[in-house]
Specification:
The chain has four helices and seven strands. With 177 residues, it is an alpha+beta fold. Strand 5 (99-106) and strand 6 (109-119) form a beta hairpin.
Length: 177
């Protein structure tokens, strides 16, 4: 218990280069979660939602003030807010239609956040979202259950936005006159 309370994990640069860029989260971090959801549209539509950080507030209204310095590109930096937390992040893996992974730092906590898109035979997409968080005293205000709930909500929001996007705008019925 005490060990996990003070676990700070590898340095952020190591998390970015050796974990995130190699399709890994920090498996020893005290706060981890994974969720999966089937999105009833193709991976290109799901990707279009993920690759639009300025539009992440449509996924989760708590997200805002997104500022990208180099677009959605490997090692591209971005800052954003999730509720009251200001987060400084960098994209680690950017494979259109397949994977978007970033690392981030907020209040001394370091995170790896992965999204993996797998096309399914029926034209839908399996979206897997995984995250690890570590930092001294992080366990006092965050735990695996809270992160799991957050990732479940995030994945559900991506599903909602992507499926709405694939349906396109709904047109009003034509006037019979």
């Amino acid at each position: 218990m005490l060990r996990s309370l003070f676990y700070s994990g590898p340095p952020l640069e190591v998390l970015h280069e050796q974990y995130a860029k190699n399709d890994r989260i920090d498996a020893t971090a005290p706060v981890r979660a994974v969720t999966r959801v089937i999105v009833d549209t193709g991976p290109e539509v799901v990707w279009s939602v993920l690759a639009d950080p300025e539009g992440w507030s449509r996924i989760d209204p708590a997200i805002g003030d997104v500022r990208l310095t180099a677009g959605v590109a490997v090692d591209g930096a971005f800052t954003w807010r999730n509720g009251k937390a200001a987060i400084a992040s960098r994209f680690a893996v950017v494979v259109p239609g397949r994977q978007l992974t970033w690392t981030g730092l907020s209040f001394g906590a370091k995170a790896v956040h992965r999204h993996v898109l797998t096309p399914l035979e029926d034209g839908s997409t399996e979206l897997m979202v995984a995250e690890s968080m570590a930092g001294p005293l992080l366990g006092l205000f965050m735990n695996g259950r809270k992160l799991q709930a957050a990732l479940d909500g995030w994945a559900a929001g991506i599903k909602r936005v992507a499926e709405a996007r694939s349906r396109g705008p709904r047109l009003a019925p034509a006037d019979p006159q």
